[in-house]
Design brief:
By secondary structure, the chain is α+β, with helices and mostly antiparallel strands. The protein is built from one helix and nine strands.
């Protein structure tokens, strides 16, 4: 193993399984792992095969930006191996998919499609407030309207 101390290296330097300490300014370092400690997290990897950037917060947790994934721009968030993704698709547009639950929170959450756009709910029973679905509420309203119509018909007799 050769050791050298250099104040400045100019030109091309090829290294394999080497450690560089200090400052790297204005260079390209492909296939790099930048750990704060080699056995601890967080760790940052650049140009891992298939991943442009990986930031690990734990063994199976972190944020990943793939270099290519089914022709999509994608951000993958892993929590103990479970993936949630944010991606932009020519077919679906912007997609945010949670591995379990997806929570949108804030003072105001606004769904604002363009003038020709729509907010699409695939199934009214999927929309709920507490333990009652929107479909159940609509069914209850229909029952009340039907009951009022019967009462009105009885009064008109």
């Amino acid at each position: 193993m050769k050791k050298f101390i250099a104040g400045l290296i100019s030109g091309l330097l090829l290294m394999s399984a080497a450690s560089v300490f200090g400052e790297n300014s204005g260079s390209t370092v492909p296939g790099t792992v930048v750990p704060l400690d080699s056995t601890k997290y967080p760790q940052v990897e650049y140009s891992k095969p298939g991943v442009a950037l990986a930031v690990y917060s734990g063994k199976d947790s972190g944020l990943f930006i793939p270099t290519y994934d089914a022709d999509l721009s994608k951000i993958i968030l892993k929590d103990n191996g479970k993936e949630s993704v944010i991606f932009n698709s020519p077919k679906s547009g912007l997609v945010v998919a949670g591995h379990d639950k997806l929570t949108l929170s804030g003072d105001t959450i606004k769904l604002a499609p363009t003038e020709q756009g729509k907010v699409i709910v695939p199934n009214w029973s999927s929309v709920s407030n507490g333990n009652k679905s929107l479909q159940a509420e609509l069914n209850d309203l229909q029952k009340q309207i039907t009951e009022l119509q019967k009462q009105l018909a009885d009064l008109q007799k």
